[in-house]
């Protein structure tokens, strides 16, 4: 069995067994509490630049298949598990998880006390880390120096790494309701699917699209996806969104798209200590009083008051926090009252996770229908 080490930037070292590719992975260590859905987690582009620590103790038992990917590849830098399943047992499995990790060059580590790692990250906060095995497994001080040389997540811009470089077109599924311009900041395939199923024809656009290019499509609505990195570093996309809001085009954003709406409206964003990553995160819908169990993956959040309607600091009228976390009262959704724009910090497309919030895609469709009704009147 090949040895491996997980080295955290505060000097803590966890030893284990090499899993996946041998080598070195550097990134921000974050824990995810999902008990299922490791394939969707690994292929979620929002994990770019991160090393995922799975709290579920047994990983890989259902293998992987081509259908459940959320994007074209695994985006996580590194992978930390307690027990890597020694066999795969599922009728849909096409490959073992370890073979997939190796094939995609993902350096992992198993036989790590992931509870201890999680408690450590919960107390000290998400931090830079490295997974080292094979020739890269060297003296602790040497590995630590490499971790300390790696980029911090705060201030990091990763949209360019994950976005399409050319526009991609998707037809509506079923009756066509309208067209949506999608800014790809690391979109998941389930989101594309659910938007299409609502009757939208989509043009998925590169992250550096200009307002002129976007408005040339005359979209009925604009959608900003989830994505990796620090929202404060996305100044171009924030300015683009302000132009979209000024043009009164209906807007819906998920996760990174919520943080960018927050910033476009003039609020700040900040880094959470250890973030929310998992598939059973309770959120309160402040309009209905309903609690939804949601899928989440975020390390940053919008800084806005959760219990009052406030004026947008950037002059876009009144804004309210539409959802907040029942674990720690972090903002989980925004709604502009005077312009057609809303967003959520969690993942209505789930994948993996519960479908409680799927109705938000219908809400986006309604906001577009209302707007079209007004325009045609
Ligand atoms: N899933 C996402 O869109 C994540 C957004 C942002 N990168 C964060 O960590 O908060």
Automatic annotation (TrEMBL):
Pathways per UniProt: Amino-acid biosynthesis; L-arginine biosynthesis; carbamoyl phosphate from bicarbonate: step 1/1; Pyrimidine metabolism; UMP biosynthesis via de novo pathway; (S)-dihydroorotate from bicarbonate: step 1/3
Keywords per UniProt: Amino-acid biosynthesis, Arginine biosynthesis, ATP-binding, Glutamine amidotransferase, Ligase, Nucleotide-binding, Pyrimidine biosynthesis
GO MF annotation: an example: carbamoyl-phosphate synthase (glutamine-hydrolyzing) activity
Keyword Ligase: yes
Active site annotation, chain numbering: 255 (nucleophile), 347, 349
Cited Gene3D superfamilies: 3.40.50.880, Carbamoyl-phosphate synthase small subunit, N-terminal domain
Record region (CPSase): 1-175
Gene Ontology terms describing biological process: 'de novo' pyrimidine nucleobase biosynthetic process; 'de novo' UMP biosynthetic process; glutamine metabolic process; L-arginine biosynthetic process
UniProt EC number: 6.3.5.5
Family matches, as SUPFAM superfamilies: Carbamoyl phosphate synthetase, small subunit N-terminal domain, Class I glutamine amidotransferase-like
Entry-linked SMART domains: CPSase_sm_chain
Pfam families the UniProt entry points to: CPSase_sm_chain, GATase
Catalyses which reaction(s): L-glutamine + H2O = L-glutamate + NH4(+); hydrogencarbonate + L-glutamine + 2 ATP + H2O = carbamoyl phosphate + L-glutamate + 2 ADP + phosphate + 2 H(+)
InterPro entries, sorted: Anth_synth/Amidotransfase, CarbamoylP_synth_ssu, CarbamoylP_synth_ssu_N, CarbP_synth_ssu_N_sf, Class_I_gatase-like, CPSase_GATase1, GATASE
Binding locations of L-glutamine: 46, 227, 229, 256, 259, 297, 299-300
Domain Carbamoyl-phosphate synthase small subunit N-terminal: 2-132
Enzyme class, UniProt record, top EC level: ligase
PANTHER family in UniProt: CARBAMOYL-PHOSPHATE SYNTHASE SMALL CHAIN, MULTIFUNCTIONAL TRYPTOPHAN BIOSYNTHESIS PROTEIN-RELATED
Self-association state and partner proteins as the record states: Composed of two chains; the small (or glutamine) chain promotes the hydrolysis of glutamine to ammonia, which is used by the large (or ammonia) chain to synthesize carbamoyl phosphate. Tetramer of heterodimers (alpha,beta)4.
HAMAP family: CPSase_S_chain
Family: Belongs to the CarA family.
Function description: Small subunit of the glutamine-dependent carbamoyl phosphate synthetase (CPSase). CPSase catalyzes the formation of carbamoyl phosphate from the ammonia moiety of glutamine, carbonate, and phosphate donated by ATP, constituting the first step of 2 biosynthetic pathways, one leading to arginine and/or urea and the other to pyrimidine nucleotides. The small subunit (glutamine amidotransferase) binds and cleaves glutamine to supply the large subunit with the substrate ammonia.
Protein name from the UniProt record: Carbamoyl phosphate synthase small chain
Gene name in the database record: carA
């Amino acid at each position: 069995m090949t040895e491996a080490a997980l080295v955290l930037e505060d000097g803590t070292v966890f030893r284990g067994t090499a899993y996946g590719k041998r080598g070195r992975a550097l990134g921000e260590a974050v824990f995810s509490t999902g008990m299922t859905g490791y394939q969707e987690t690994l292929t979620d582009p929002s994990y770019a630049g991160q090393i995922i620590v799975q709290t579920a103790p047994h990983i890989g038992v259902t293998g992987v298949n081509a259908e459940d990917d959320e994007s074209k590849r695994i985006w996580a830098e590194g992978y930390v598990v307690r027990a890597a399943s020694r066999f795969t047992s599922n009728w849909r499995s096409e490959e073992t998880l370890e073979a997939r990790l190796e094939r995609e060059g993902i350096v992992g580590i198993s036989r790590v006390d992931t509870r201890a790692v999680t408690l450590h990250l919960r107390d000290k906060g998400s931090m830079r880390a490295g997974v080292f095995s094979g020739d890269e497994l060297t003296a602790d001080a040497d590995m630590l120096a490499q971790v300390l040389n790696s980029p911090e997540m705060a201030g990091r811009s990763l949209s360019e790494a994950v976005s399409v470089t050319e526009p991609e077109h998707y037809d509506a599924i079923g009756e066509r309701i309208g067209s949506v311009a999608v800014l790809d900041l690391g979109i998941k395939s389930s989101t594309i699917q659910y938007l299409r199923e609502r009757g939208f024809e989509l043009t998925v656009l590169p992250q550096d699209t200009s307002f002129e290019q976007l408005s040339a499509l005359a979209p009925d609505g604009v959608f900003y996806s989830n994505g990796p990195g620090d929202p404060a570093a996305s100044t171009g996309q924030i300015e683009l969104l302000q132009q979209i809001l000024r043009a009164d085009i209906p807007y819906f954003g998920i996760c990174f798209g919520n943080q960018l709406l927050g910033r476009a409206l003039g609020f700040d964003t900040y880094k959470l200590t250890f973030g929310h990553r998992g598939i059973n995160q309770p959120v309160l819908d402040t309009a209905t009083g309903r609690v939804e169990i949601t899928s989440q993956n975020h390390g940053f959040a919008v800084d806005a008051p959760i219990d009052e309607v406030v004026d947008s600091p950037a002059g876009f009228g009144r804004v309210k926090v539409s959802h907040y976390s029942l674990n720690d009262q972090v903002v989980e959704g925004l709604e502009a009252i005077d312009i057609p724009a809303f967003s959520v910090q969690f993942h209505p497309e789930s994948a993996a996770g519960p479908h409680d919030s799927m109705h938000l895609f219908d809400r986006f469709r309604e906001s577009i229908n209302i707007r079209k009704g007004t325009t045609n009147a």
